[in-house]
Amino acid sequence: MAQMPDGEIAPRDGLLPASAALGSAERTLHAYLHIPFCRVRCGYCDYNTYTSSELQGVTENSFLNNLLREITLSKNVLEALHSEQRKFSTVFFGGGTPTQLEAEQLALVLETLKSEFGLEQNAEVTTEANPDTVDERYLNTLADAGFTRVSIGMQSSVSSVLKILDRTHNPENVAKAVAAAKSAGLQVSVDLIYGTPGESLDDWRESLATAIDLDPDHISAYSLIVEPGTKLARQVRSGELAQPSDDDHADKYEIAEQMIAAAGFDWYEICNWSKSPATVSRHNLAYWRSNDWWGYGPGAHSHVGGTRWWNVKHPSAYAERLVASESPALARENLDEAAKATERVLLELRLREGISIDYLKSINPQAAKPISHFIADGMVNAEDAIRGQLTLTLKGRLLTDALVRDLLG
């Protein structure tokens, strides 16, 4: 069955409405590149990824050619918009497993972005990496090409937890990958997942301690979500595995904050900690601050000036569009002011810097009432609130979604 759009059908030429150009000079521009290849599919993953057996007829080289075609198309679309001509401030290769491609292939994509758009001075360029797929030669090639950062998928250091997640990487290769990245002069982030069925509190402490001992520049820790349609969801539904509990997630988040902070990291977004302001993920901050980004690749989402669109999901359909010199965009939506306000609250409240109380009152005149309750309940920092900024305490971070609902009224 053909994939159906949720929004309005996107034009085949990919052109954007004139409204997308408004205020572009005040927003930065970013690139996300979705590499859909994975060696195996992890049981918890619902990302738009495919193993080689699921992609008959789509090779890495043919995919790469189409990715380059979309980069050229994006340059033409943004030029036709007559908006502020901007270079990319950050570039992020995600997936999937971007490092399933050769380092030279990733370098070619980055070089194409540079030639079509240019990169801002000191641009951040990141790739996600499976620790089994990178070594010193690979990471040195990336560094020489202009990559500045690598985000290594560690998830856990406990073999029984990795087995439940269907993560097949060798835990010992995480340390090797981190050391190789440092040797290449790259900043290093490690990604962790907590709340896996059967993971004890001590298991989680062991994973955190192992990650901290690697001395990375940045740590991300995400709670496991049982996504519908995944192998993990079927295992939970059948009773083979227990449904992760909110209390377990909360306990493990508090442990993460305690241990990561004690090691000298500061949180700057609910799920992210960095060694210094210089090692935060500027790419992710661009999302949370509602800047502009073009998402390249099958299923990738983009946002420019209040227009959001998303590409066809399957790599074959993606290829068909681009070979025909058509946009791969499936559908799009134009955010109205109410939707923009809702998203701004959802995203900015997650940041350590928080959100302006005056802004909250401008979109909800009754916001003062829940804010006073938050202060009384220790959900937000009272001193920051007096200065006009709503920022979360640890207690508030655990209940962010509820706070957002109350703020929006």
From TrEMBL:
Radical SAM core domain ranges (all copies): 23-266
Keywords: Chaperone, Heme, Iron, Iron-sulfur, Metal-binding, S-adenosyl-L-methionine
Pfam families: Radical_SAM (PF04055)
An example molecular function term from Gene Ontology annotations: coproporphyrinogen oxidase activity
GO biological process: porphyrin-containing compound biosynthetic process
One cellular component term from this protein's GO annotations in UniProt: cytoplasm
Stored PANTHER family: COPROPORPHYRINIGEN III OXIDASE, RADICAL S-ADENOSYL METHIONINE DOMAIN-CONTAINING PROTEIN 1, MITOCHONDRIAL
Family the UniProt entry places it in: Belongs to the anaerobic coproporphyrinogen-III oxidase family. HemW subfamily.
Full protein name: Unannotated protein
